[in-house]
Amino acid sequence: MPPEDNCNYRFLLADDHSLIRQGMEFVIEEIGLEGDIFHASNLNKLMEIIEKESIDFAIIDAMFPDGNSLAVIPEIKKNSPKTKILVFSGLDERSQSLRYINAGADGFLSKMSEEEETKEAVTRFCKEGKYLSSVTQSALVEVYINPNAANPLQKLTSRELQIAELYAKGLGNLEIANILEVKQNTISTTKKRIFEKLDIENIVELIDLLKIS
């Protein structure tokens, strides 16, 4: 459960952009919350703080220079079960939020949100220990109606999934092309299509997605 009103909160703000962290700290102060605020600019620092401090609320980005927060959300919950996690990200909320919720996050807030919406979201997150926007709620309803919608890998053809798994094993374009006996250009084109379908930008994200799907 989140701390009761009038208690001192312990926040962790994790984002590789200091302006984003400062902006969120301003939001926290604006809505009248008090307590200690810790900052992290990468995943290593994030986990270091989680392990050393008793964090009530972690507001974290989805992507960092050293990886995707999908990889550490389960670790945060393992090390500090009481810590509530709000993912604050510029990723497309409709297609991406459930990935983070499924990994253990307690909410997802888009960086495209207006200031008042951000304040309301953080307020609700701190009072209730969770935050689900109308967009994420709509995505949850869609998954209820169509369970396959929860797994973005369902968007891939069997061939694309095979190639994605080979990339995840550390193979390069030439090696995959030789294994599948196709041209290297074909593999490169397929890789681009996989990334577009999954709305990801690199192999690290692909590996994380394969782990939780």
From TrEMBL:
SMART domains: HTH_LUXR (SM00421), REC (SM00448). The modification 4-aspartylphosphate is found at residue 61. Residues 10-126 form the Response regulatory domain. Residues 149-213 form the HTH luxR-type domain. InterPro entries: CheY-like_superfamily (IPR011006), NreC/VraR/RcsB-like_REC (IPR058245), Sig_transdc_resp-reg_C-effctor (IPR016032), Sig_transdc_resp-reg_receiver (IPR001789), Tscrpt_reg_LuxR_C (IPR000792), WalR-like (IPR039420), WH-like_DNA-bd_sf (IPR036388). The keyword Cytoplasm does not apply. Pfam families: GerE (PF00196), Response_reg (PF00072). This is Response regulator transcription factor.
